[in-house]
Amino acid sequence: MTAPTKKISTRKRQYRTTTKKTASELNPKDLQSLQTRNEILDAAEELFAYHGLYGVTVRNIAEKAGVDTASVHYYFGTKDQVFETVFERRTHTINKARLMALDHYEAEAGDAITVEGAVRAFLGPILDNDQQNDAGWRNWSALVALANNSKEWGGEMMSRYFDKVIHRFIELLRKAMPEARDEDLYWAYQMFSGSLMVIQASTGRIELLSGGKCSSDDVDAFGERLVAHATAGFEAVCQK
Fold first, then answer.
1. Do both 84 and 99 map to the same domain?
2. Is the model's pLDDT at 88 over the cut of 50?
3. Is residue 5 in a domain?
């Protein structure tokens, strides 16, 4: 089934953006505006995570957020813009945390960078967020997994938001495995990314497959196993 073709408009419209002031600096009207905007994004995040872009309407988002459809259009314009804003809202924070973790590991390890160390640095902020069991984070993670497996969104959008971090990660892997070929590094990352996305999607598949022995929410169980699996995979593919 072919995904609906997005219509691209050449018209430029201005939509309301939130102030960069902190919440404590806002007057009551602006604070209410910020709260409404975030409630719309929270509602959209959950709906998109479960149903994807095309399974959700602006009316669905408005009803879940407890606002009218005019409010959604007022703050974001179109449904596509809501989707884009939901996607990028947590991206900056997690990317910043991962880059800091990778930089810190490199500075700490010096010339003794290992594949396992690089994998732990890359995954650490993600697993830390998973440990918090925050519904919004899990919804966003599931949405990223959904987008990553979409022909429409998985290429350009994932590259735009995440390639900087991924290239930094691969840079450390090159230092750990200086003889590795680029093709092997990229293929190994692709396979690692697939494992990570399945876990972050939290579909309940592992519960059914294991007959209840495993849980998608058991970060302690999947975290160390994912590190071990990824480390062995990178080494097997790149050090052959």
1. no
2. yes
3. no
Q: Are 83 and 40 within 8 A, CB to CB?
A: no
Task: Please list, residue by residue across 113-123, b when 16 or more beta carbons sit within 10 angstroms of its beta carbon and e when fewer do.
Answer: bbbbbbbbbbb
- Token readout for 159 is 């590259």
pLDDT at 138: 86
Name the residue among 28, 57, 62, 59 with its Cα closest to residue 43: 62
CATH number at residue 149: 1.10.357.10
Contact 238, 177 (CB under 8 A): yes
| 121 Cα distance to chain centroid | 16
Compute the C-alpha angle 168/141/33, nearest 5°. 105
pTM of the model: 0.80
Q: Return the H-helix or E-strand segment holding 198.
A: helix 182-201
* Spatial separation of the C-alpha atoms in residues 226 and 120, rounded to whole Å: 10
CA 24 – CA 138 distance, rounded (Å): 27
Distance (Å) of CA 62 to CA 29, 39, 80: 20, 9, 14
**Sequential DSSP letters for 136-162:** HHHHHHHHHHHHHT-TTTTTHHHHHHH
pLDDT in tens, 203-222: 889 999 999 999 988 999 99
Asked if 94 and 148 sit in the same domain, the reply is yes
